[in-house]
Amino acid sequence: MRIGIDLGGTKTEIIALDPLSGRELYRRRVPTERSYEGVVRGVRDLVGTAERELLQTASVGVGIPGSLSPTTGLIRNANSTWINGQPLDRDLRDALRREVRIENDANCFAVSEAHDGAGTGVSVVFGVILGTGTGAGIVINGQCIKGVNGIGGEWGHNSLPWPRILENGDDERPGRLCYCGKSGCIETWISGPGFEADYLKSSGTRRSAEDIVRLAATGDAGACSALARYVDRLARSLAHIINILDPEVIVLGGGMGRIASLYDEVPQRWGSFIFSDSVSTRLLPPVHGDSSGVRGAAWLWP
Question: Residues 234-263, buried b or exposed e (16+ Cβ, 10 A)?
Fold first, then answer.
């Protein structure tokens, strides 16, 4: 049996898969503990409960919103900042009494969708997570490209491209301060919290991303404007990727990836930023929904 854990900023999900067929045997989702000790304890308890209910032991893979440093072996770059600087793989190994494989959550997502999802049968897939943070994974000919520094796909911490002065006079430069210490990162604009912060600044009202999208669907002017700004920023950000990587498919995961209008509106906007006379790249929702990342984590073991 294979167990995958998706350790998100707000929720932690576990899935158990049959090792041969990939059939789902078990799934559960709980709020993420916002302390390092709580994370280790929470993963231990989730795995223990699943194995007791299924009467089987399993391999365990974990997707995280960061990565293991190849130099120190410690977690770095996680927007769940309480796990940064920690030997998570070693502590989970001790808690679960077995080896545990850890991979960036966007890499897990991209591998899942390239294997048997929206990117099935194509050579280059860019899998995006638009959730509490913004990350991505690159899969070329079935292989996840992590890079020599282990940061392949860390697109959310580049600057928002082609920054604008908006109609109301707001300037996108230098942008909001990011947890990474820089300002104007793509993540600060197109993550869920980034979308909410933009709406708050323009309207003076704090609402969830889901509420803003619902308001936009009713024709609310402020929500429609916020969503239009979001579409424009996402289109510019993805155009940068197309100019560099030229993927056949871009798959959007995470909570913001559930906004249905993105799949028509973003490709309508990105063409003017792409260095080509035509654009064949397809923008697609994930076949396996927002649980694609946890499936990819389960497949970290051969």
Answer: bbbbbbbbbeebebebbbbbbbbbbbeebe
Q: Assess contact for 11 and 30: CB atoms under 8 A.
A: yes
Report which of 253, 282, 236 is spatially closest to residue 191, judged by C-alpha positions.
253
- Cβ–Cβ < 8 Å for 80, 36: no
Mind listing the pLDDT tens digit for each residue in 122-162? 999 999 999 989 999 999 999 999 999 999 999 999 999 99
Instruction: Assign a CATH topology to domain 2-108+291-298.
Output: Nucleotidyltransferase; domain 5 (3.30.420)
Predicted confidence (pLDDT) per residue in 74-100, tens digit: 999 998 999 999 999 999 999 999 999
The DSSP bridge partners found for residue 31 are 11
State which H helix or E strand residue 136 sits in: strand 134-140
Write out the residue limits of the CATH 3.30.420.40 domain(s) in the chain. 2-108+291-298, 120-285
Task: Identify the CATH assignment for 120-285 out of 3.40.50.300, 3.30.1330.10, 3.30.420.40, 3.90.550.10.
Answer: 3.30.420.40
Q: Token pair for residue 61?
A: 């893979």
The whole-angstrom distance between residue 232's C-alpha and the CA centroid of its chain comes to: 19
191's tokens: 């993550």
Below-70 pLDDT ranges, the chain: none
pLDDT value for 122:
96
Which pLDDT score, from 0 to 100, does residue 73 have? Answer: 95
